[in-house]
Design a protein that fits this description.
Length: 289
């Protein structure tokens, strides 16, 4: 029998990263109706900034990580402030293509400035470890899971208990009606872009600690993130959180089986399709009832 414990723990860590970025994706979509395809590229850009400062310039770790979060947040917020209003009245496809364009610009810029070589950024959390059965769990893996849970709880409370959170939920239903009620729509949207940028930057750093600093891998982290968000119907933070964990565990567990290991990257698509088919089947049943 294959001992799946190490793979499940690694999968939970990956799932924590997917969930963390998925929460930012859902909040941004609810406030702006924008699917942020560039969040993985934003995280990769921030991680490369941290690597440059820490590994090449010798700056303290905290300075490098704060700079990474600052750069990623500035890119996302800048895009939201400059182009967000121009796309506000466009349909969903045009909004998505806009962020896809940002992804391509960032991907090209990273390739020009840093090249495509894989790099290593050693996070301080990696030095901490505990033994759990046959598996060794490091601090980065624990941080990914714990941070995803904390952010999901905090974001849920924020959306339910604060005026700004209520405004975001209102904009998810009708941007025009929310604006007519006197809500500062632009400010709410800017906050959502800011929040998304912070989470994208943090997930980029965490993912670097889990798999290394590879531009393509970090950029296309958006695939499982979007799958988790879609499984949560781009509304439910908790379903997105759970979906991210399930995707991560299934992807990682498949590595243990040589016959299917090469197909693990299709896991997000398969799970998202199954979820969508189940929702489509369930809706007619509810209509008949």
């Amino acid at each position: 029998m294959v001992d799946l414990t190490p793979y499940i723990i690694l999968g939970l860590a990956f799932g924590g990263v997917y969930s963390l970025s998925g929460v930012g994706t859902v909040v941004l979509f609810r406030a702006t109706a924008v699917l942020h395809f560039a969040s993985g590229a934003v995280g990769a850009t921030g991680a490369l900034v941290a690597w440059t400062l820490i590994e090449q310039r010798g700056t303290p770790d905290i300075v490098g990580y704060l700079a990474a979060i600052g750069v990623g947040t500035a890119i996302t917020l800048g895009y939201g402030l400059l182009l967000g209003p121009k796309f506000a009245q466009r349909d969903a496809l045009e909004k998505a293509i806009g962020t896809l364009g940002l992804l391509l610009i960032l991907l090209g810029g990273m390739s020009v400035l840093w090249g495509n070589d894989a790099r290593t950024l050693n996070l301080p959390t990696a030095r901490l470890s505990i033994q759990l059965g046959s598996a060794t769990v490091n601090g980065t893996q624990i941080a990914a899971i714990a941070l995803a849970l904390v952010v999901t709880i905090a974001t849920t409370l924020f959306l339910q208990l604060t005026r700004l959170g209520t405004a975001m939920r209102g904009m998810a239903d009708s941007r025009e009606v929310t604006a007519m009620l006197g809500v500062p729509v632009r400010r709410v949207e800017a906050t959502a872009w800011l929040f998304s940028g912070v989470l994208a930057s943090i997930t980029g750093i965490l993912m670097t600690g889990l798999v290394g600093l590879d531009i393509a891998s970090l950029t296309f982290l958006i695939i499982p993130v979007l799958a988790a968000a879609v499984m949560g119907r781009l509304r439910s933070l908790w379903i997105t959180f759970g979906a991210g964990l399930v995707i991560g565990v299934m992807q990682s567990s498949l590595i243990a089986f040589d016959s299917v290991a090469e197909y693990r990257n299709i896991t997000p698509f398969v799970l998202a399709i199954v979820m969508l088919l189940w929702l489509a089947w369930r809706r007619p049943l509810m209509t008949r009832v």
